[in-house]
Structure prediction request, 139 residues.
Amino acid sequence: MNRRMLLGGAAGVLAMGMASLTAHAEDDDEKGDHDCEEACSECGTACTACAADCLNELAAGQVERKECIQLCLDCADICDACARITARKGPLAALIHAACAEACDKCAAACEKHKDDKSCVECAKRCHACAKQCRKEHK
Prediction:
């Protein structure tokens, strides 16, 4: 087999693979599941980072950060569960989406009390986006 045939065959396989990935992504976009998984994953990460930063503030004497930490950790766990259930299209997806949206609303409200903290601001932003996406996907 010469080099040209090998490269041509590899390009054909790559093109078919890309077409398959594009079609799969379009299917996900039509259903919106990919957007929901992504929003939940990003929110969970932001909540975990926020909790870690708030823990430092708590250690420095800012006792009002305790509620923020608790809500961020709970929200992160719910977001992670929501992303997993959404990915597998579980039968309880609507239930976890409702719970996730509510958790995100409460977490965002707690984080918005700390407008001078970058991680709290980012967490609130991600929580709002996640809540919006969860409500959009499963009304």
Residues 11 and 18 are 10 Å apart (CA to CA). Residues 1-31 form one domain.
